[in-house]
Specification:
Mean pLDDT: 78
Number of helices: 12
Distance between the termini: 22 Å
Oligomer: single chain
Structural class: alpha/beta
CATH topology of the largest domain: Rossmann fold
Order of helices and strands: HEEEEEHEEHHHHHEHEHHHEHEEEE
Number of domains: 2
């Protein structure tokens, strides 16, 4: 058990450090420790709650660092079958004796939802809201254009914010009825051939055989315009224009996520983002468009500062759309599984980097998935990790956390941390249970 004066020092660090960099929690014992949170889930999805520090191993940029402590932080009640922890959690960036409650941010990707589909999802979010205990704070962040509501316990205000959200999805329109996977594949083929202009000239000169160099172009031509010898050039231009539209939408939505994380970085404590989206198309092929961004350069710093775990509820409509009457009429051969992966892949990587996960729902509302989020966020471990002197440089560092002894356990953790420069030496002060800090 960590001494009471150490607990007081924890409170002092949080109380005296309002800047965003303090979101990567640092507390003091005999050495300065960095707080890294991790969730350990059993095969049923319930949190595992009886692990000691010796079961965890942590690396920063691939270098092993000593885990000094592993304290269980319980945020909500769990079913009685879950074992009680062996000791009370103490090393957290909020005192365990303070008022309980989690902070949730309902992030809604409005550009991915048609109006009717969003209304069904909104009903599920209201059910999720009703299931939260009164101490939990909840905010709403609909992006890219709002509405936005700071985390609050005012349930009526949250419901009003949700009522103000509308789906703004605009389906991709192309002359040749291209699917996202076809846009990606055609652009990848263009990248292999050369510039789009060069590819068009080569087609016009009959120097390109779409059957070998550009099989997707050949497939679309056979479906859409088999008797037109000049059709392949227009297909390339159509795919290029569609990729530009997808990239514009992708940039706008990533900017929305970045703004949300910047907002969360100034709020104290750990936050859980429930990101509800029908997906955002990102290429899975070299040279394909829209191109994926590097997670570390795009959002890694913001993830490290925000102290937020992201659960993405992916309402996957790809399988349904793949077998729709329109798809059958076009006689497309696209794989619905791949279409789903294109929409979910980047969001999956974002969620994992934050310490959360992406959960796909085949229904329109995702209500079952939201119940899973409630169960998994009931507790987590706060690890006290001893950094090396070279780690204290304020730069982004990649984290890896492993747990021994549970082959069927899932371990989730934030994959990026920033350890502040020049940590201040603080004198411990007395803190009574439940005292504000």
């Amino acid at each position: 058990m960590i001494a009471r004066w150490v607990l007081a020092a924890v409170a002092a660090v949080v109380w005296m450090s309002p800047c965003p960099a303090a979101q990567q929690s640092v507390f003091r014992s005999s050495v300065e420790l960095v707080a890294i949170d991790a969730q350990v889930l059993g095969p049923s999805g319930a949190p595992v709650q009886d692990l000691g520090a010796d079961r965890f191993s942590v690396t920063l940029n691939g270098k092993a660092r000593r885990v000094v402590s592993a304290d269980l932080i319980r945020l909500a009640e769990m079913p009685a079958v879950i074992a009680e922890p062996r000791q009370r959690a103490v090393a957290t960036n909020e005192l365990p004796d303070a008022a309980p409650g989690r902070t949730f941010e309902l992030a809604i990707d409005t550009s991915s939802f048609e109006t009717n589909a969003w209304q069904r999802s909104a009903m599920a979010l209201r059910t999720f809201l009703a299931a939260l205990p009164p101490p939990d704070l909840v905010g709403v962040y609909a992006y890219p254009f709002g509405p936005w509501l700071a985390p609050t316990r005012d349930r009526a205000a949250i419901r009003r914010a949700l009522d103000g959200v509308t789906g703004t999805y605009q389906p991709m329109r192309t002359h040749f009825h291209l699917e996202p996977s076809e846009v990606i594949d055609i652009n990848a083929e263009m990248a292999r051939i050369g510039s789009p202009a060069t590819a068009v000239r080569r087609i016009g000169q009959v120097a390109l055989d779409p059957g070998t160099d550009a099989p997707t172009v050949r497939s679309v031509q056979d479906r859409e315009c088999p008797a037109d010898p000049n059709c392949s050039a227009r297909i390339l231009l159509d795919a290029s224009a569609a990729a530009q539209d997808l990239e514009a939408s992708l940039t706008q939505r990533i900017d929305g996520l970045r703004s949300m994380l910047q907002t969360l970085s100034v709020l104290p404590g750990r936050k859980t983002v429930v990101l509800v989206s029908a997906g955002m198309v990102v290429s899975d092929r070299v040279g394909g468009r829209p191109e994926p961004s590097d997670m570390a350069s795009a959002l890694g710093t913001h993830l490290a500062q925000a102290n937020s775990v992201i659960y993405t509820v992916h309402l996957d409509r790809s399988v349904r759309d793949g077998y729709s009457a329109a798809a059958r009429r076009l006689n497309t051969s696209n794989d619905p599984t791949r279409e789903a992966s294109l929409r979910a892949g980047w969001l999956d990587a974002l969620s994992a980097a934050s310490g959360g996960t992406l959960i796909s729902a085949q229904t329109d509302d995702g209500e079952d998935v939201l119940q899973q989020v409630l169960r998994e966020t009931s507790s987590y471990y706060l690890l006290g990790v001893e950094p090396a002197s070279g780690d204290r440089d304020g730069k982004l560092r990649e984290v890896r956390v492993r747990v021994s002894g549970g082959r069927q356990w899932s371990v989730r953790y934030r994959q990026w941390v920033i350890i502040p420069k020049g940590l201040r030496t603080l004198q411990p002060r007395a803190v009574e249970p439940g005292q504000a800090h």
